[in-house]
Amino acid sequence: MAMEVSLVAQLLNDTLSPDSTVVHTATESLDRFSHSPHFPFSLLSISTGGGNNGQSVAAATYLKNFTRRNINSENPNSKSNVSKEFKDKLMRSLLQVEPPVLKVLVETFRIIIAEEFVKQNNWPELVPELWSAIQNSNLISTGANCEWKTINALTVLQALVRPFQYFLNPKVAREPVPPQLELIAKEILVPMLSLFHQLVQKALSDQGRIEMEMEMILLIVCKCMYVTVRSHMPSALVPLLPSFCCNLIGLLGSLSFDHGVVPDDQYFLRLKTGKRTLLIFRALITRHRKYSDKLMPDIINSALKIVRCSTNISKLDFLSERIISLAFDVISNILETGPGWRLVSSHFSFLLDSAILPALVLNEKDVSEWEEDVEEYIRKNLPSELEEISGWREDLFTARKSAMNLLGVISMSKGPPMGTSSNGSSASSKRKKSEKNKSNNQRCSMGELLVLPFLSKFPIPSGTNASEARIINDYFGVLMAYGGLQDFIREQKPGYITTLVQSRLLPLYKIPVSSPYLIASANWVIGELASCLTAEMNADVYSSLLKALTMPDNEHTSCYPVRISAAGAIAELLENDYPPPDWLPLLQVVISRINVEDEETLILFQLLSSVVEAGDESVMDHIPFMITSLVGVLSKSIHPRMEAWPQVVERGFATLAVMSQSWENFIPEETEQIESSEKWISGRTANGKSLSALLEQAWLAPMHPVDQDGEVRPTPICLDDSSNLLRSVMLSVTGSNAIQQLKLSELLLVWADLIADWHAWEELEDLSVFDCIKEVVTLHRKYGLENFIVRQMPSPPAPPVPQQSIIEGIGAFVSEAISQYPSATWRASSCVHMLLNVPSYSFETENVKQSLVTAFSQAAFSRFREIQSKPCSLWKPLLLVISSCYLCYPDTVEAILERASEGGFTIWMSAVALVATGSFEPGLSTKSEIKLTAMTLAKVIERLLGQQKSGVGLSIDCFKSLLEALVRLKEVQDEMEEDEEDEEAEEDGDEEDDDDDDNEDSEEDELEETEEEFLERYAKAASALENGVVVEEGDVEDQEHEIELGSLDEADEEKVVLSLIERFHHVLIQGHGIPPHIVSSFLDAFPKFSCFFQQ
Predict the structure, then answer these.
(1) 386 Cβ contact partners less than 8 Å away, ≥ 6 residues apart
(2) What confidence tens digit (pLDDT) does each residue in 403-427 have?
(3) Please, which residues have CB within 8 angstroms of residue 1059's CB and are 6 or more apart in sequence?
(4) Among 570, 589, 637, 710, which is most buried by a count of CB atoms within 10 Å?
(5) What is the C-alpha to C-alpha distance for residues 703 and 765, in angstroms, rounded to an integer?
(6) Residue 363 to residues 305, 369, 408, 565: CA-CA distances in angstroms?
(7) Distance CA 414, CA 345 (A)
């Protein structure tokens, strides 16, 4: 054992060697040693050796990774194989090691307890042994020579309770407290809180003197209590909550927020304890109202003492400000509860005047951040992520945001109702929303009675006082307050909102020398109120924002936040269907300010995309000019041998993609008129030329890095947007000459190479690629493309090596999509049918088609084998891909399936037969799917029986499915004919039905979901997820589309089946007991086949 420890220690040292060969050899040796039963003990011995600290940390890290690999927490049926001997030694080590090693080694402990203690409850001695270790540790025991360290023992306790901070079983609507947590609370936390009380009293009595170890104990105990009560409330803790909270309030009272205090390490720990205290209060208020209501008076008084220190906020460190932020949040939490109004309402005036407004006014830190870290200023003070004012938010982090949130909660509060129901009420009672709104509207909110009158006391800066710092600072706070009141303001009448904007916001833009701090905040407020602005001030709002969007920098002050917030506000207005009175001035301003060397251009590109999407037909006439302008700007920024494009160039490509897509989407509405218009034709042609020139510069110019083979390759960036632009170029083609002029064959070759090597799959990244693939095939069918199926040999002096053609690059991309990306399966499968069935393959190009069939069938069958165990919707596209391949080259596909799996052909064919039956869900739905399946089944039967292969049983199963498929095909064809005949009548009927439905819906009151219903619904959803009853990955909109069958679409399936039955009816029908209902349905649909089924 000692020799093994020494050898493992040496190997760990070798893994830190600068020589890669030595590292590789040491790693392989450690992997071999890892199979030894003594290996984890060796690592643990090295971790606790105390010699080389770096080696100890390395051993602890290796042990953590080794333990994670060997405990399969993902398998609910797995059993941990950690021995009791190792667990005991690990516990002893944890209680003794130094802090750097403890930090890593405790991660190993967490991995083990998650399996042994939390999941399996297999470590009964853990809790009593840990409490014994805490009692006998060096800072708690009065005895001498204590071998255990108190900080280590409490760190182990923290790791032990940490898994219980969340609910463990989402399938249970109301999960009880886990018995393990009850045990920890009873055996450790309850006696620990008694000790905690003594330590708090000692800490508070030592005036001005703070001990590091004592503060660490207080902090860890608070962390343990926080994770314990975050979701659950162990019964043993309930009686101790009042005394515990009293101790916490005492610790909060010891904190100082005097900006002259510079926190040392000990006091920093006290601040962290104060932060954890407020988090505990929030958990008690939001999760355990039953036990916290009586504690709220003391909690609110403690929080009020903290928030009054917001006047010093600009001079405080981050942690102190975070504590003030949490104190605001605690008050918001309490105000949202039943007793909250009674406890907080008497302090409203104090909060507004002495806490909230001081946190909102402009201060020195704001000015410093504006000048030195403008992005941080925008993130903190113009918070576009501010979504919902609520007492339950947990993502506010800064005192200003928390103060704004509290102001919003105060403004929405209306106090207790004037009367109560004789029947009482409960949180779970079901009430109609209309009844709640009616009762709420009978009482005035604090926003009307208190908040707005308070804010109106502060005058708006004007020409006479615009230079006074106090006026500017205070009004900055007023603007921040309006942002916090957005939910309240949205509930007011339109006339009130108009008055507010016209009297308190828009005048700021007319001041001769306006403060950029105020203008930026006013921009943000307008954006936050976008959903409730009235049409009458439309022109004034846009005029003001355009003025802000073009505001130049002052001599000493940058106006970047002003311009950025103006762009954000305009985007918010457009998103909320509040368009400008005239689109042209807005477009002119944005286009004129776009410059790729300007840091604001990224935001302007985003704004331009929003304008184009919102403007729709109002901006269509300007798109060709804008595309030409942007291409000119972007062309200047694509430099030789760029390894990566700047972010602004990527955003520029995205904006061009939005423009080109908007242009194409606008076409279908008035196709005949538009396509006959010379203006539209010339615009589309101009777009194609401009975008082709940009792609040519990006892809074809000799300016890209050279790969290992000496070949120039373009930068594989913006694949989605580039594909969108390339598709627009193809759509602009009106003849073969245009293909040459636009260099489409060359561009498509580069694009095909790029997508063939693409592996960064994302949900949105490949959408345009698949659309582009379909357009390429369509273009080739119309005009023929060079290098589409076979690529021409390169010219000398390049070696005469055949290179990848366009369709081969596309094929590689599609195969990878099928293999690696479930959400792309439907789109990729659709492309397979198109690539195999639409192009015309000559005798010389059959090898290309065969290579595609090989790649597609291998990828589809491999993916099918992964999901074969449970039928799902992804079966259908994968099986149909193999079907298309099989109809092209049956022998090739049979060989591929048999190589991939023993009996692979039978596996595939049996699955196809199952999908073709009426019992499979979701079954075959479109005409093309059913026809492809029927033709495949017929082909298989013919080959099995015609070649006298041993597959009569499979042939009979396929024949039964074939009969069902033909019946379903006949039904779909009949339905399509009926739909065409009755379309107009149905549309009229639908309109009348819609009117009736609207009237019925308007009469029904919407019922709010109760807490019990919510929990029950989510528990059912969790059970469904575990049982696999979910919608598989894939795009629903792609599942109902017809697939391309090419020449197969002209085949007469009835003749094929008739020929099949004529040849093999004695095998297929006689004596094999085809179910009567299948025969009956088939003969009802096809009476002419009756003669073959007569007995």
Answers:
(1) 401, 404, 483, 486, 528
(2) 999 999 999 998 665 444 333 333 3
(3) none
(4) 570
(5) 25
(6) 21, 10, 22, 19
(7) 10
Q: Read off the pLDDT of residues 863-915 as tens digits, 9 standing for 90 and up.
A: 999 888 888 888 999 999 999 999 999 999 999 999 998 889 999 999 999 98
**Assigned token pair, 128:** 């009593």
Task: Report the distance separating Cα 858 and Cα 270, nearest Å.
Answer: 63
Distance CA 88, CA 350 (A): 57
- Assign residue 145 a region (left: φ > 0; alpha: ψ between -120 and 50; beta: otherwise): left
User: Taken in order 1081, 1084, 1090, 1095, is the CA torsion positive or negative?
Assistant: positive
Q: Are 685 and 741 in contact (CB under 8 A)?
A: no
Residue 465 φ/ψ region, left for φ over 0, alpha for ψ in the -120 to 50 degree band, beta for the rest: alpha
Q: Give the type of residue at 84.
A: K
Cα of 409 vs its chain's centroid, Å: 29
From the CA atom positions of the chain, what is the Rg in Å?
36
DSSP-derived secondary structure letter, 145 = S
Cα separation, 604 vs 951, whole angstroms:
67
Q: What is the dihedral of CA 527, 531, 536, 542, to 10 degrees?
A: 30
> What is the three-state SS of 766-805?
CHHHHHHHHHHHHHHHHHCCCCCCCCCCCCCCCCCCCCCC
Burial class for 856, CB neighbours closer than 10 Å (0-12, 13-18, 19+): buried
Mean pLDDT of 370-380: 89
- Residue of 416, 407, 400 lying closest to 489 (CA atoms): 407
Neighbouring CB atoms inside 10 A of 684's CB total: 23
8 Å CB contact between 941 and 959: yes
The three-state secondary structure class of 148 is strand
Which phi and psi angles does 947 have, rounded to 5°?
-95, 5
Maximum CA pair distance of the chain? 107
Confidence of residue 600 (pLDDT cuts 50, 70, 90): confident
Q: pLDDT, tens digit, for every residue of 444-481?
A: 889 999 999 999 999 999 877 767 889 999 999 999 99
Alpha-carbon distance of 1084 to 382, in angstroms, equals 70
Q: CA-CA distances (angstroms) from residue 277 to 299, 507, 622?
A: 10, 45, 59
Are 485 and 497 in contact, with CB atoms under 8 Å apart? Answer: no
- For residue 1007, the 8-state DSSP code is B
Locus of tokens 């192009």: 839
CA–CA separation, 732 and 680 (whole Å): 11
Q: Which residue has the tokens 């083979």?
A: 709
Which residues have CB under 8 Å from 924's CB, separation 6+? 876, 915, 916, 930, 933, 965, 968
Find out whether 445 and 411 touch, Cβ atoms under 8 Å. yes
Q: How far apart are CA 608 and CA 50, in angstroms?
A: 62
Closest CA to 162 of 223, 99, 215: 223
Residue 266 host element (H or E): helix 265-287
Q: At what angle do helices 890-900 and 875-888 cross, to 10 degrees?
A: 130
Q: Transcribe 1063-1088 into DSSP letters.
A: HHHHHHTTTS---HHHHHHHHHH-GG
Please tell me the number of Cα atoms within 13 Å of 218 on its side-chain side. 32
Q: What is residue 432's three-state secondary structure? A: strand
CB-CB contact of 252 with 245 (8 Å): no
Specify the pTM. 0.81
How far, in Å, CA of 89 to CA of 671, rounded? Answer: 79
In a 10 Å sphere around its CB, with 0-12 CB exposed, 13-18 middle and 19+ buried, how is residue 341 labelled?
A: middle
Q: How far apart are the two ends of the chain, measured CA to CA in Å?
A: 83
Helix, strand, or coil here: 137?
A: strand
Rounded distance, CA 17 to CA 21, Å?
Answer: 9
Q: Which residues contact 940 (CB under 8 A, 6 or more apart)?
A: 886, 909, 954, 955, 958
